[in-house]
Structure formats: C-alpha cells, structure tokens
Amino acid sequence: MLQAHPLQPSVAPILFPLTVFTLMSLFQTFADSTSPAQGPDRIGKLRAELGRRGFDGFIVPRADEHQGEYVPPSAERLAWLTGFTGSAGTAVILADKAALIVDGRYTVQAAEQVDAEVITPVQMALTTAEDWIADNLRPGAVLAYDPWLHTTEAVKKLEKAVARAGGTLVPSDMNLVDVIWIDRPASPQAPVRPHPIAFAGETAADKLARLRDKMATDKVAALVVSDPHNLAWTFNLRGGDVDCTPLPLGYAIIPQEGRAQLFFDPAKITNEAGDAVGDLAEFVPISGFQTALDEIGQSGETVRVDAATGAIAIARRIEAAGGVVDGGADPIALMKAVKNEAEISGSRAAHLRDGAAVARFLAWLDREAPSGRISEIDAVEALEGFRIETGAMKNLSFPTISGAGPNAALPHYRVTNSSNRLLARDQIFLVDSGAQYEDGTTDITRTIIVGEPTAEMKDRFTRVLQGHIAIATIMFPKGTNGAQIDSFARKPLWEAGLDFDHGTGHGIGSYLSVHEGPQRIAKTGTTALVAGMMLSNEPGFYKQGDFGIRIENLILVEPRTIAGGDRDMLGFETLTFAPIDLRLVEPALMTKEEIAWLDAYHAAVWEKLETLVDAQTRAWLEAATQPLASAAR
Predict the structure, then answer these.
(1) Residue burial 388-424, b: 16+ Cβ < 10 Å; e: rest
(2) What is the pLDDT of residues 544-594, one digit of tens each?
(3) Is 2 helix (H, G, I), strand (E, B) or coil?
C-alpha cells in the first residue's frame, strides 16, 4: 500500500473515459504564432529606428531581463521581429544585412521560420554571434544593445568582437524593438503565493541563514537576486508569470544583515504572500528597484551580482553609485539544486502519479495509433488529458514535443496546426512531455514504433538505450562533474560513427523550472554532482527527414558503496517509471548486464504502477513490462 502524501490522501486507479478531454488542450495551443512574412516589414521598421538614433545595428537576444528560458509574451522580441520561436538564439540586425545565430537544436526550425532574403540563419557551431559581428560590422559603425538583456560577461565578448571590426558598442537607453512593437503585450501580473512547507521542506528563514553564512564566507555585503527561480526557492514563493514554470518575475536584494527587499509589481502581491514572508523581507514596487541599487552602491561595499543572470545594467548602476560589484555565481543556485527530503519524497510521489498517466496514454496510443487516424495534436491532447485526470496537475512543465516520422528527428519540435502529421504505420513516434505538480516536476521521453520497425531503427534505438543504461548504472567518485560522465551515454553511438547534438542531461527543479542549473550531464557540465541533485538521462539519435529517438528518465544523485574501494562514491536512482518500447530493442546488441537492467526496470514499473491504473491499462502494462527474452519471441 502506498504511503499517504500531503497532496493526495490516497492514490487510486483512474477510470474516466478518454472522450471527455479530447476536444481541446487546456495548457497549450497549436496555432502558428509567427510567419516568415512578418520579418521584412518589422526589420525594415527597426532599421528606420536605427537611422533616426544614429545607430548602425542592434542586437536582439532571445532573453528577458532575467535571462530566463521561458519568457512572458511581452519579452518575446526575437519571435516578434524575425518569426523564430526557439528558446535560444540571437539576431544581429545591421543596416544592410542581418543574421539569426542558433545552436544545433534549431538549425532546421530557423530555416523554416525566417525569411532568408532579409535574415540569414547561421549555425552557432560554425559561427558565433561575436564572430559574425566581427566579420560583418563595418569599421566605424555603432552597434547598440539593451543593457537589461545582456550579462556583463556577454557584453565583454561583444565588446571584443566589435573592437575587432573597428566599431563601437553602445548601450541603448531603451529597447528599440519595444519602440516599434506598437501592440506589445503588457507585463504579466499573476499573483504571488506561498509554496507550502510540506513541499518546500525548509523554511525561508533557515534558507536565508544558510545563504548568509555563504555570503559571509564570500565576503559580500549584499546579494542581488536576478534569477526569479532563486528568489522563488529562497522565500518559498510561486507565481504564474511565464508558461510552464510557476515563477513570479521580480528581483530581490538580500543584505548580510537586516530585512531583504523583494521587488514586484504591486498588483501581484497577495495577503498570503505577505503573511508567509513576514518579517524576513519587505515587498517593494518594481519601480523602486533601480533606486535600491543606487542605495546599496552608495554604501561602497561589495555586492554580488550573478554572472549567469545579472544584467550588466544592474552592475553598472551599482558601480556608478560607488559600490563594488562581485560578478560571481549566485550561491542560491547550488543550494536549490540539492533537494531536501521533502522535495525528494514529493518528486517520487509525483513520478508515480505521472507514470500512471503516461502508462494510460501509451496503452491508448497502442490501441488507437494503428488506425492511422491519430495525429500529433491528438496525442498531445490525450496525454494532457490523462495528466489532468490525476487531479493534481498544475501545468505542463514545457510544451509537449509530439513528433511523428520525420518530425521526430527535430529535437525541439513543436507541433502546430500547419505541421501536424498523422502517426503512420511503420514509423517512429517520439513524445517528450512533463507536468508541474505541487510536489514535483516531471519530464519523460518515450519513443514508440507504430507498426514494424526497420533494422536501422532497432539498431539506433538499442544504442540509445545502451547509453541510457550506462548513465543509469554508473558509479563515480565524489567531485565528478557531468562533463566527465557525458561520454558514457555516447559510447554505443560513437562505436557506429553516430552522435547527438544536445546534452545528455539537465537539472530539474522542484515545482520550478524543468531545466535547472548549474548541474548538467553535458560537455559543458563543469559543476560537481552532489547527492540530492536531480537530473535527466536522455541520450538520443536523429536521422534528419526520417526519424528521431530519445529515451528519457529523471534520476537522483545518491551515495553508493563499492566493497573494497577507498573513495566516497555516488550513483543514480531512477525516478521515472513507464515502459520502454521493447519492439524497438535489438537483443543481440545488448550485454547480459544491460538486459538484466532493462528487465529489472520493467519489473519495477509493473510493481509500482499496476495498482494505479485501470484494468484495460493494466493488461497492456503487464505485456509491455515482460522480460526482453519473452518479448523477443
């Protein structure tokens, strides 16, 4: 019998029919929100504004004032200007040419979404934004930027690039896209509410005490919190200013002694939030933030401004008032990354609830997809519906990636009404999805075959699975970082001359962002992994124009012991439970140990979920979790 959890007194099978929720999606839309045709006119207007102000170019990053991955509609400047809707990219608009620089995830998407006659998509792997500027800015030109959308380190790189070109980089007193964006949406004003201690697991007072100990060690008199995730975690607050993440957008200033200041639009502040914060902090209108920066600068003391999310405008304001800026890392990020027992317990409960919903979806998909009448959008709506029926879902944790056939080969594909495909026989379908529950954030990817796979599909899927198992079973000494173990996920692909162009794993928040740093399993993952951190395990393979494969579970770093060893070791506990499609596995490629892991994983899936699903799903689940040897017959 499952232990009762604060969110639900008990967990029972979900028996509602699918038909009640297939009419619409509550959390995502499928409209084509942009068009390549919008670029020429809007870029033309921006160039006219540049001419009026005496500038020769302007930089438009895909960022808001907090460097967030998910930004409010009012900050979607890059999408509005160019038509590109990816979560990362930078446009550089000059008087006679323009470029959109994107990473490997968005190469195809950028080419499809922008008008190449007026803006050239550029792969970051070939040319960075700084290199493009150095090569294309004419000598003597003045390139402008919004100092609230760039960090100090980013501006230093831009300054070097502009100097190489013989130009000048200058801050603009206002964002020039905002000047021409006449119908720009208003800033969000979702209510700020407390996050219950049953799920947070630690009071804001205790978090502040730990934080101030770290500030004292680092010899900083105050900390400017520019990342809303860190603000929300420290003060046990949540909001709704951006899609998919329960964030209240705002800033905080935390002094070494005395009350902190929390800067929000006054319309957001609820009585419950005020009561929860109490004497720890005062709420200050966001309009007073820059004045507060002047005041801490006038003290002449050292102030920490986060290198990753702190806008250069913040640092320059403090320095102009006489303060000393320490551009180190916000210590809250690492504190937040290490989950406490309540957060871990909540995540386990959320994953069981979510796993049951995913199992219901996969069973439904196996019944319905062979008909040839199920589309990518139908699948999104069905999965969302099963999660809604848990009664605990607050939101998606990101827009669902639902890719059939060649669309599955786009790692960050987003289905729209115009791109929507039917799930065809003998094609792969990839679904990457997650949910926000008050006790935990989930993220899971499953790759399913509709009909019969080719030998190539089975080979690639099995190699991805082998990489997934390598991460799930690895043990490593304390102090090891994600970059050091990333290659274990790639080795089976490398042996066939293959690879994938994204990281193997990202950090996970606790009812916060589905993409949380600083921990990650990737070539750039330089932060040491610590017991209590949560990450994803998601190697993949993508054959452009044909199919894509990704297998993703969430994992928890935990202590391990190796008999006879002399080092403190760590390993991973798998948190996600849902079947992996055995029809795509080629047993001949796998070792006995890999097959044993897969069989044990499926035995655990059956044990944990079989009482949480309806009878029809239970019958499917029993077949889907049988040992590989039985499935291969």
Answers:
(1) bbbebbebbbbbbbbbbbbbbbbbbbbbbeebbbbbe
(2) 999 999 999 999 999 999 999 999 999 999 999 999 999 999 999 999 999
(3) coil
**CATH number belonging to the domain at 193-337, selected among 3.40.50.300, 3.40.350.10, 3.30.420.10, 3.30.70.270:** 3.40.350.10
Q: Which amino acid is at 139?
A: P
Distance (Å, rounded) from C-alpha 559 to C-alpha 574? 13
Degrees, nearest 5: CA angle 149-60-395: 65
CA dihedral 54, 314, 136, 83 (to 10 degrees): -90
pLDDT (0 to 100) of residue 632: 66
CATH of domain 341-632: 3.90.230.10
Which CATH code for domain 38-180? 3.40.350.10
Q: Are 2 and 352 in contact, with CB atoms under 8 Å apart?
A: yes
Residue 404 pLDDT > 80, yes or no?
yes
**Residues with Cβ < 8 Å from 209, sequence gap 6 or more?**
none
Burial classification of residue 599, based on how many CB atoms lie within 10 Å of its CB (0-12 exposed, 13-18 middle, 19 or more buried) = middle
Dist CA 536 CA 100 (whole Å)? 29
pLDDT in tens, 77-129: 999 999 999 889 999 999 999 999 998 778 888 888 998 999 999 888 889 99
Helix (H/G/I), strand (E/B), else coil: 181: coil
Burial class of 270 by CB neighbour count within 10 A (0 to 12, 13 to 18, 19+)? middle
Q: What is the pTM of this model?
A: 0.93
Provide φ and ψ at 448, rounded to 5°. Answer: -125, 140
| Count of Cβ atoms closer than 10 Å to residue 148 Cβ | 17
495 CB-near residues (< 8 Å, 6+ apart): 463
b/e sequence 281-300, b meaning 16+ C-beta within 10 Å: bebbebeebeebbeebbebe
Where b means 16+ CB within 10 Å and e means fewer, 100-109 reads bbbbebbbbb
